[in-house]
């Protein structure tokens, strides 16, 4: 194969003008690709960061809700009672028990979902019409969410729920 390549290269005649033309065409294309890659990486980083901030902010409410659901059948209590019980027995860190798997989930899930939505939306937009109908957008959003949820995050969800169940040992 190497001999074939050498033979082909010996037969091809390339002038200096051809090389200059190729360089002038390739440089802008490479710069555009680098800029597009940089914009995509910025979108991914910002999507992950914003999702992790939102998860950190709402996690105490979520952990209170989960523990309330686990113990509502055994002995009914209010959400306020559950939250104060967590604070009394475990401190403020008890409200954030299990946060790390949730943050890791959003590190992958949210950018895949949002970037996947954008890619699918651009794939379905026709060149003469630059918008999609609301049902089409909803369908594309559902597809990107299912792909991100199923393929990437199933293990993170399992890990988070197993940690929530371990945290219920404090109520037994």
Task: Please explain how this structure is put together.
- Its main location: membrane.
- It is a multi-pass membrane protein.
- Belongs to the mitochondrial carrier (TC 2.A.29) family.
- It is found in: Membrane.
- The protein is an all-alpha fold.
- The protein has a single domain, classed as Mitochondrial carrier domain (Mitochondrial carrier fold, Alpha/alpha barrel), CATH 1.50.40.
- The protein is built from six helices and no strands.
- Helix 2 packs across helix 3 and helix 4 crosses helix 5.
- The protein is elongated.
- 11% of the residues are buried.
- The mean pLDDT is 77.
Kindly report the name of the CATH homologous superfamily.
Answer: Mitochondrial carrier domain
Main β-sheet: number of strands, strand sense, barrel status? none
Number of domain modules:
1
Helix-and-strand structural type = mainly alpha
Q: Name the helix and strand elements from N-terminus to C-terminus, one letter apiece.
A: HHHHHH
Mind telling me the CATH class? Mainly Alpha
End-to-end span in angstroms?
A: 71 Å
Oligomerization: single chain
How many beta strands in the DSSP annotation? 0
Low-confidence stretches: none
CATH architecture assignment: Alpha/alpha barrel
Number of helices: 6
According to CATH, the fold-level topology is Mitochondrial carrier fold
Radius of gyration: 26 Å
- The overall pLDDT average reads 77
Beta-strand proportion:
under 5%
Shape: elongated
Give me some keywords for this one:
mainly alpha; Mitochondrial carrier fold; transport; Mito_Metabolite_Transporter; repeat; MCP_transmembrane
């Amino acid at each position: 194969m190497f001999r074939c390549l050498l033979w082909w290269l010996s037969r091809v005649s390339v002038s200096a003008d051809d090389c200059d033309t190729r360089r002038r065409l390739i440089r802008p294309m490479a710069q555009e690709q680098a800029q597009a890659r940089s914009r995509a990486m910025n979108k991914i980083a910002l999507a992950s960061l914003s999702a992790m901030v939102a998860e950190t902010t709402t996690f105490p409410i979520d952990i209170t809700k989960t523990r309330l659901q686990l113990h509502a059948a055994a002995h009914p209590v209010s959400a306020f009672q559950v939250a104060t019980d967590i604070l009394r027995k475990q401190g403020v860190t008890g409200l954030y028990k299990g946060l790390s798997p949730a943050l890791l989930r959003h590190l992958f899930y949210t950018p895949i979902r949002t970037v996947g939505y954008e890619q699918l939306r651009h794939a379905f937009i026709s060149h003469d019409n630059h918008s999609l109908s609301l049902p089409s957008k909803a369908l594309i959003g559902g597809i990107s969410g299912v792909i991100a949820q199923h393929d990437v995050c199933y293990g993170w969800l399992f890990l988070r729920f197993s940690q929530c169940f371990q945290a219920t040992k404090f109520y037994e």
